[in-house]
Structures are given as C-alpha cells and as structure tokens.
Design brief:
heterodimer, A: alpha+beta, 6-stranded antiparallel β-sheet, 23 helices, about 55% helix, B: alpha/beta, Rossmann fold, 5-stranded parallel β-sheet, about 45% helix
C-alpha cells in the first residue's frame, strides 16, 4: 500500500498523468467536434439536395405554364389543330404539376403559408383561364375572332399576368430559402477548417504550462541542492529547507539532509581519532630503535654464513656452466676457471688421448690454464710416470713435487706444488684423458676436498665427453654437408651438361637416333619423332621405320634392310639417300648416316647412331640449278641451231642470190640475238654474284632521260613522250647502268605494245624518292605471270608474244641494277590495256659545303680519322666521294665557300680530284679557298704548289695533315678580313681563337658575318 | 607417188623457216604449226607421213603433243615423230622415248643429217 501511495505521488507519474490526461481530453474534444460538425454539414447537404429537386419542380411549373399559354396562343393565331392538342396536353400536365407543387409547399418548413396562399391564388386564376380557353376554342371554331380578342384582353391577359407574377414570387421564395441553407453549409465548412488551428494553439498552451510546472517543482529544488553541495565541499554543512513533498524531490531533500548530518558526525569522529594516532606514533618510534639494534646483531651472524654460501655458489656456477656450450673452446674457458675456483686450485690442464688415423697413440693438451706456456708440449706421443699410469689404473693420483724454475716465473714464492691427476672416463668407463690440477700454496690435500674434487671432475669428465661427442658429430655433419654441396654442384654441372647436349641434339635440323646393339632405340630427338610422327624410344628402329612410305634411291634394297644389315655388322659405315612421301604427298629427301658408337677405349661397340639429314632444300636447289642449265642450254642452242643450219645449207646447196641474202640476214639476226643473250647473261651473272662495279656519282636525271629519249627518237613506230619536272633532280647512281635500266624498260614497252602509238615516260619526286614511270598501251601482263616477270629467262607465253624477241633477262637485270641503287621497281598491268613500270630511287641531296672542311675522299676509314682529328678544333667537316659530287656541290650552293678542301685524286666517279680543284680555281668566289691535295701517285711533273694549295703524299700521318691544315688556315686568317656565311658567332670566335686569332670586331649581316681579327702573341 | 606430207611445229620463226627451207626444197609438202595447240589442230585436219616437233613450245610441249597423239584414235597415231630439242639430259631423252618419240635430235642439228633421217623414216 505504501509503495502504491508513493508511486502515485512520484514525480514521473505525475508528469505522465498530466501529459496523458491532457492529450486524451484534447484529442477527444477535437474528434467529437469534428464528427459533430461533419454530421450537421452532411444533414444540410442532404437537405439542399432535396430542396433543389423541389425548387426545380416549381421552376418547371412556371415553364409548363408558359408552354400552355404559348401553344394556345399559337392555336388562336394560326388555327392549327396540333397547337390546340399540344395546349390541351400541357394543360393536363400543368394541373398535375400544380398539385405536386402544392403538396411540396404544404410540407415546407419556411414560408409555408405564403406559398400556399400564392398557389391557391394561382389555382383560382388557372381555373378561370381554363374556362376562358374552352370558350375561346369554341369561338375560334365559329371564327369569331373579335370576341376572342375581347375575352383575351379583358380577362385572359390579366389572369395570365397574375399567375405569372405568383409563380415568380414562389420561385423567389424558394431561391431565398436555398441561399439560407447554402450559407449554413459554408459556416460548417469554415468550422471544420478551424479545428487544426485550435489544436495547434491548445498544444502550445499546454506545453507552456508543462514547462512552468517542471521549473517550479523539479529544476529549482535540484539547483538549490547543487548550491548546498558546493557549500559542503568547503566544510559548511548546510541543510535543505524541509518541504512536505512526498515525491522524488521530497525524498531527495530528506536524503540529502540525512547525508549532511552523517558527514558532519564522521568529520568530528575523524578528528578525535587523529589525536589518538599521534600519541601512538611516538610510542612506536621508541620501539623501532630497539629493533634496529637487534638487526645489526643478526647481520653479523649472516656474514658468517655467507662465506660457506659463496663456496657453494661457485660450485653451482661451475655445474651450471658444464652444460650450455656448443663449441669446445668456450666450454673450456667457461668451465675450467669455475672448476679451479670451486676447488681452490691454481693451475689445471686437460690432456686427451687422440689416436692418429693409423691408430698410433697420440696425446694432446687441449686446454691449460695457470701453467707457463712452454711447460708442456702440446702433443705427446708417449706418456711417462703418473700420466701414463692413470690410463691403466683409472684412479685419482696425488703427487707432491718441488716447483720447477719455469713455474716460479708464474707462481712466485712457492717451494712445493701438489699435482692431482684425475682420470676422464667415457661412457664405457675407459680413460680418454685426464685433468691435471696443481695447487701451489698449501700442504696436504684434505680428504673432504679430495672427494669434492673427484665429484666435480667426474661431472666435468661426463660433460667434456658429451662435448667431444657433439664436436665429433658436428664435424661429421659439416663434412657431410660439404660433401653434399659438392655432390649437388657436381649434379648441377652434369644436369647443365646434359641439358646442353639435349638442346644441341634437339635444335639440330637433323633427325638423330641412338640404338643399342639389338637395334632398339634408346634416344630419338624431336625432329626424328616428327619424321616418324610417333614415339620411337623403346621400339626397334627397323620396325618403327618399316611403316614409312620410303622410296629409296638404292634400287632393290629397302632402307630397313640396309639398317638391319648395318646393325648386324655387315657394314661399319652407312650413307644412304632416300625420299619419304610425308603428309600432303610432299616429297622429303633424306640422307641417312650411321656410325657405330664405341666406348672411350674404342674396343667395344655400345650402339649405333643414325642421323637423318633433311636435304629437301638442297634437292630443290639442285633442281633449280638443273632447270636453269636446261633453260640456258635451250636459249643458246635455239639461235645457234638456226645459224649453223643455214650455214650448212649455204655451204652445201646451190642457191639463188636472193635466197642466199635472206639466209644471211637470218644468220646475222640470230647471231646478234645470241650475242645479246650472252651479254645480258654475263651482266646478270656479274650482278648476281656481286662482282658488278658501280661508279656512283650524282646523276641529273632529267638530262639523262632526255638523252635516252633522244636515242629512241625515230627508231620505232612509237612516239616516246616525257612528262615531268624540268628542274634538276639528282640521284646517286652509275650513269651507264641507270641508262641501261631506262633503255631496257623502254625497249620492253615498245616490244610488248605492237601497234600502239606511244610510250609515256613520267618523272615525279615524292617525299625524297624519284619515281620514273614507263607506260605502254600494249598487251599487258596476265595475272598468273605477274609474279614471275622478274625471273630470269621468264617470258610471258602466248601466241601474241611469240614474235616478240628478247632474252628474258631484261627485267631481271633492271631489278638487279635498281636494287643496287637502293631503289625498287614495281608495276601495274592490265591485259589488253598495257603496263606501267615504276622505278623508285632515292633522291640525292646535294651537300652544302659552305663554311665546312671538304674531305674529298673515297676511303671512308681515312675520312673518319681526319674528321676525328679536326673535331679537336670543332671544325665542321663534310665527306664527298666523287669529284662529280664535289663540283655539283660548288655549283649548286652559292651560299659560301668551303673553309678548306682536302682532295684525293683517285675517286669513286670517273672524274679526278684535279677537275674539282680546277673548278675551284676557275670560280672567283672560291679561288682563295685553301686546298690540300693528297694522292698515292706523284703529281704531274708540271704541277706546282701554291700559297693556298699544298700537296701531301699518301700515306700520311694525321699529325702531318693537321700541321698543313693549321698552316693554311693561319695564312688564310692573316688576310685582313674574314667573311663567313652566317652561323654561330661564338663558334666562329672560338675556332678562330684556336687558330691564334683574337676577334677584335664582329659584324653580323643578313647572310654573312664579317670578322676583324688580331693575331694572338703567344700562339705558335 | 604423191608428195610426202610433213608437219613442222616450232615456236621459233627462224628455226621453222630453216626446217621448211630444208625440206621443201627436197619436195616434201610442209604444214607449219607455231605452238603445241596448233600442232594438235593440224593433226586433226591432215594426214601426215612424218611429224617434226620442237620440245619447248608454248601451250603444249612436243612431248605432250606426242603423248596425246599416241594415246588418241587420230589418223596419225602411228606416224613417226622426230623431236628437236635443246635439252641434252638423259632423263629428257628417256621421257621422250617413253611417250613414243621415234627420233630424238639435239639442237643444233645438221639440216643435211635431218634430211637423211627424214628419208630413212619415210622409207621404213
């Protein structure tokens, strides 16, 4: 119950309730308002709907009435029966409708009396009008129109007006009523729209109320509490004002006050106990002093114990050190000192028995400490005394002796020493060495010490033995690893070798098979397996080959038989040719070699090696060669047969003069043909074997073409036309051979266009290529022959061409020559239309020699040497190979003279170097150019050197040449003015400076530079 | 006795002329063909007593013409054939003999000797 009460009064509950109830009431209010308004609105809408029908009815009554009146007037005016019928029909309808409207009016809520009254009035007037109607109808039938007018004007019209005005009034009443209803509906609509606004305002107001409540009842008390807490932190115990609230805040206030009270109380208690503690501390301090005194006493006792402990520690340390070493030397270094310290000994050594590989005794001191270095030899072959005895007696021995002189150097001041020999026993209890320990200071060895020593040495012995074993094992495994490495290397070498041999065998073009003595294949390379198309290894070679389609050249004996005979030992060597018909019926020609394979001594046969060499290509070459010989033979014998035949007839028959002449003509023509054939054939042979010597010079092609054309003028029926540029175009070529090309092409064009009127030549330059077209309008080349027309002796065969002579070598020669000139030849042809051959040659760019050192030399190596030397002075050079080239360069570029010319006499072209020099001298512009003439042969006897022209006999050293260059350049420089073609001023200055000339003035003009110079004093 | 008719087939005008001159003077009637095809046509049109063929001719070689002739039902099927050739290799001769050439003559040949051979063949 208490909890319930508390809960009901809790703050959260209150807030929740407040929000809950508020929301609930608000929502209920809003919903009911909405539904109420909606209900009324719907009612009024229904009412309006009903009312509209009633109003329409009244409206229609008015219309009906008008219709009656209209129809009847129609009848009266026109006398038509159908108007009367319609009026009567409408009259009946009007009566019914009037009844209905009256009924509506009686039920209506508003203006009922007014409406009823008006309708009664209408009914009265209507009855009156109806009686008038009947009367008028009768009068009409009688034709008394005058009476009708009287009735109409006196009674009809007033009655109608009264009815009309009454009906109008009724309609107005209805309209008024309808307007009222619509207004009511509108007000409901606006109320519905107001609901959301009311909701919004209501929410805002309740929110405000909520905030105000929270601030007053929750926030303010909590803040007051926070302030109090701050106060308490500074020691002011402040209480909250107790309120009678029963919610969380009330509880909080009560709890807070309780806590503050508790804190105040505890504070007081702590202060009290503090005072008590201070008094207790004083008591403790006095007790402490007493304890300190006791501790000092204890420490004293402890010190006595420590010495014993140290001894034990040394032993432990030693024992610990016995394990944990891998290498022998660190093991000794680590353990031995500890052992000596533990046993209080001065020197010790370890001697091990290490028999030699041949099992002779051998003893080695492996470690020693504390003895003079030279006291013991490191290695002993034999032991004496106790050292020898210990190996057989296996027990510890002690020996007192006087200290030797050598030892005194290390252990000064002792007379006696005690040696103790401890045997080292292995796992078989065999002595494998001993430890010798020496003490230089005391007398007898105590029994207890002796026992301890024995124990420790025993431990040492076992540890050392293990160590030695390990060492041995390690050595063995290292040896094994080394051996393994070597084996691996060896294996790698072998594998490499094997791979090498394999790849050699696999990469050969020959099929290789190795057989054992029975003829079973032990190895076959890839190529061989391709030949037999299958795996050979393991099968008998003869079986494997038996299935091959072999046609051996050796008639009668099959290849497999030959191989069998060879394996059987009937022959020691085998060399056989045979042909295989492999896939696609292609013949593959093989040569088979076989050898016995013997061991290294050569005494025993190990197997047989068969090599199948594919000589199909050779066979083809042979065939081609035969065919060629046969063609040449045919070509030569045919004219020869004619010549000899006619000669024989001339010699043996009596013939008329005419016949003789005719025969002679044929002989002359055929002999000529034979001669041409031989010339062409030899030409081609020379070219093909690379023995043709070409004299390359720059050729001006338009000139050459004109010359060639000139030679053909009037020779044949064809007119030869040249189209092309008149500007000079140069090609680097051999004049005679280029001319030969043109003649051959024109000759073919003429020959293969019998009956045509012209042959066209055209010359074009296109991207540094000179293209010469030779076009005929003749037979054309059939497509199937096109690929062969450059083949030797190939002539297109068909009846039209039979009469056309020729060797069949012309185009082959043309092709050789053009290609030797770095060019190419191609053609387009159409049968019946003609053919165009196009020769494509690189255009020769005439080099510019202005401002450069011209090296006119056909030896490229020598030129290269000279160029390199001149580069030291950064002088630009240009190499020219022929005098023709050089002369052309001078004539073609007038931009400036060369710096200097180094001129060889024998050059590539037919012209000599002298011709170039005379060209230089004849031209005023170039005349002062310095020249160095170099030649193997002496200059002509009338030759004389000049100031600017020197002769250097070949062979010369580059230094000698450079000296002459320098001399000439210097002379040139001394002439007062220098004129250079435009180039880099700095480069000019620099190169002049290197020649000992200081530039004093430099003037750059549009296309030349004027330089004034001064000779440098220190230049030599 | 009527004139003996000889077919001469050679693509070289000069050689054909030589043969015609040599043989016509001796009173033989000559029909000329300029290639293998023409020779075949002539063999269809005429009946010959002797046939002289050049080996290397366009369209059909002498050997091909001879091969065709011997295999055909032509009226000239058994007429002797002289093959003139510049081919000197043994295998060429073998080939020619295989297809039924009667006499194989290597260029250059002696016209007088040819006359003897022709006379011999026509006798037999």
């Amino acid at each position: 119950m208490v909890a319930m009460v508390k809960k009901r009064k809790s703050l959260a509950y209150r807030i929740l309730m407040l929000i809950g109830i508020g929301m609930f009431v608000f929502v209920v209010l809003m919903i009911s308002a909405y539904f109420g308004i909606n209900h009324f609105r719907k009612q009024i809408v229904a009412k309006i709907d009903d009312y509209v029908i009633i109003q329409q009815r009244a409206d229609k009554l008015h219309d009906q009435y008008n219709a009656v009146a209209l129809a009847f007037r129609g009848h009266l005016a026109f006398g038509k029966q159908e108007f009367l019928d319609e009026a009567n029909r409408n009259r009946a309808t009007f009566g019914q409708m009037l009844g209905a409207v009256k009924q509506d009016a009686a039920q209506s809520v508003q203006f009922r009396d007014e409406k009823v009254r008006l309708l009664d009035h209408v009914e009265t007037n209507w009855r009156d009008y109806e009686s008038l109607l009947e009367k008028s109808t009768m009068l009409k039938q009688q034709g008394d129109m005058a009476s009708i007018y009287v009735i109409a004007s006196e009674r009809g019209t007033p009655a109608l007006r009264a009815i009309n005005s009454d009906l109008q009034q009724i309609n107005e009443l209805y309209q008024l009523e309808l307007d009222q209803m619509l207004k009511q509906k509108e007000s409901y609509d606006s109320m519905e729209l107001a609901i959301p606004v009311v909701m919004l305002v209501g929410s805002f107001l309740s929110g405000l109320l909520m905030v105000r409540f929270l601030r007053r009842d929750v926030v303010d008390p909590i803040m007051a509490m926070e302030r109090n807490v701050q106060q308490i932190r500074y020691g002011h115990y402040v209480f909250m004002k107790e309120s009678d609230r029963e919610d969380e805040i009330g509880m909080l206030e009560q709890g807070f006050n309780h806590m503050v009270r508790e804190l105040e109380m505890r504070h007081q208690e702590l202060e009290d106990s503090n005072v008590e503690l201070i008094s207790q501390r004083d008591t403790l301090e006095s007790q402490n002093e007493e304890i300190m005194a006791q501790q000092i006493e204890l420490e004293d006792t402890l010190g006595k114990l420590t010495n014993r402990e140290k001894e034990l520690e040394l032993i432990t340390e030693y024992q610990e050190k016995l394990t944990g070493y891998v290498e022998l030397l660190p093991f000794f270094e680590g353990t031995f000192t500890s052992l000596l310290q533990a046993l209080d000994q001065d020197a010790a050594m370890v001697l091990l028995h290490k028999p030699t590989p041949t099992n002779e005794s051998r003893y080695e001191v492996v470690y020693s400490v504390g003895y003079p270095a030279s006291l013991f030899p490191r290695i002993e072959v034999e032991l004496y005394g106790k050292a020898a005895r210990i190996f057989t007696e296996k027990k510890t021995m002690t020996h007192k002796r006087t200290v030797s002189e050598m030892e005194r150097g290390v252990h000064l001041g002792y007379e006696y020493a005690i040696d103790q020999y401890f045997p080292l026993l292995d796992d078989q209890q065999q002595v494998y060495g001993f430890i010798l320990m020496t003490n230089y200071q005391c007398g007898e060895v105590e029994e207890a010490r002796q026992q301890l020593s024995k124990g420790l040495v025993k431990q040492f012995s076992l540890a050392l033995f293990a160590q030695l074993m390990n060492e041995e094992r390690r050595n063995q495994s290292a040896a094994l690893a080394h051996l393994n490495d070597e084996l691996t290397r060896e294996q790698q070498n072998l594998e490499e070798q094997r791979d090498l041999i394999r790849s050699i065998l696999e990469s050969t073009h020959e099929g290789i098979v190795m057989c054992d003595l029975e003829g079973r294949v032990v190895f076959a390379n890839q190529r061989m397996e391709e030949v037999v198309s299958g795996n050979l290894v393991g099968s008998l070679l003869t079986n494997a080959l038996a299935g091959l389609p072999v046609s051996s050249k050796n008639k009668g004996v099959s290849m497999t038989d030959i191989i069998s005979q060879f394996i059987a030992g009937e022959h020691t060597e085998l060399q056989e040719r045979f042909t295989l018909k492999l896939v696609d019926d292609k013949l593959t020609h093989f040569e088979l070699y076989a050898n016995q394979v013997s061991d290294e001594a050569g005494s025993e046969t190990r197997g047989f090696l068969f090599v199948f060499r594919d000589r199909t290509d050779e066979e083809k070459v042979d065939e081609l060669k035969n065919e060629f010989v046969s063609i040449v033979s045919h070509e030569l014998r045919t004219p020869l047969a004619t010549v000899l035949g006619f000669m024989e007839i001339l010699l043996h028959r009596q013939l008329t003069v005419e016949k003789q002449r005719k025969y002679m003509e044929i002989i002359y023509k055929e002999a000529n043909r034979l001669s041409n054939l031989i010339n062409d054939f030899l030409d081609l042979q020379r070219m093909e074997s690379g023995k043709q010597v070409y004299h390359f010079t720059p050729l001006e092609m338009t000139g050459i073409l004109s010359d060639v054309m000139e030679q053909w003028r009037g020779k044949e029926a064809h007119e030869i036309k040249l189209v092309g540029p008149t500007d000079p175009v140069y090609v680097h070529g051999d004049h005679d051979r280029v001319t030969q090309v043109l003649h051959n092409l024109i000759s073919n064009a003429v020959k293969y266009s019998p009956g045509a009127e012209q042959v066209d030549l055209s010359v074009r330059v296109k991207s540094s290529r000179l293209l010469i077209d030779v076009t005929d309008y003749g037979l054309g080349i059939p497509e199937e022959s096109q690929e062969n027309i450059f083949t030797k002796f190939y002539r297109v065969d068909n009846s039209d061409r039979r009469q056309i002579g020729g060797t069949g070598l012309g185009l082959a020669i043309v092709k050789e020559i053009v290609e030797a000139h770095g060019g190419s030849i191609r053609f387009v042809s159409q049968v019946g239309r003609g053919t165009t051959f196009t020769v494509d040659l690189p255009v020769y760019d005439v080099p510019d020699v202005a401002g450069k050192i011209v090296i006119l030399e056909d030896d490229d190596n020598l030129t290269h040497m000279i160029e390199e030397a001149l580069q030291r002075w950064s002088l630009p050079t240009v190499q020219l190979h022929s005098a023709e080239e050089a002369i052309l360069s001078l004539r073609n570029h007038q931009s400036g003279s060369p710096l200097l010319c180094i001129v060889d006499i024998q050059l590539k072209g037919p012209k000599l170097g002298w011709e170039f020099i005379s060209e230089l001298n004849q031209n005023q512009y170039y005349a002062s150019t310095p020249v160095i003439v170099t030649s193997v042969i002496e200059p002509p006897s009338h030759y004389q050197e000049k100031a600017s022209e020197k002769f250097v006999r070949k062979p010369f050293s580059v230094e000698r040449l450079l000296a002459v260059v320098q001399q000439l350049m210097k002379q040139q420089a001394e002439s007062p003015d220098f004129v250079f073609p435009v180039q880099d001023e700095l480069a000019i200055t620099e190169s002049l400076r290197e020649q000992g000339l200081e530039v004093t003035d430099i003037k750059v003009n549009e296309d030349f530079i004027e330089v004034d110079v001064k000779k440098r004093d220190n230049f030599e | 006795m009527s004139m003996k008719k000889i077919l001469i087939a050679d693509d070289e005008f000069a050689l054909r002329f030589l043969l015609t001159e040599t043989l016509a003077d001796e009173g033989y009637e000559i029909v000329e063909a300029e290639d293998g095809q023409e020779a075949v046509l002539a063999l269809g049109e005429h009946t010959f007593d002797l046939i002289i063929l050049d080996y290397m001719m366009p369209e059909k070689t002498g050997v091909e013409v001879c091969q065709w002739l011997r295999a055909s039902g032509n009226a000239n099927v058994d007429v002797p054939v002289i093959l003139l050739t510049a081919k000197t290799q043994e295998k060429d001769r073998e080939k020619a003999m295989e297809v039924g050439v009667t006499t194989y003559m290597i260029k250059p040949f002696s016209p007088l000797q040819l006359l003897d051979v022709v006379a011999d063949l026509l006798q037999g």
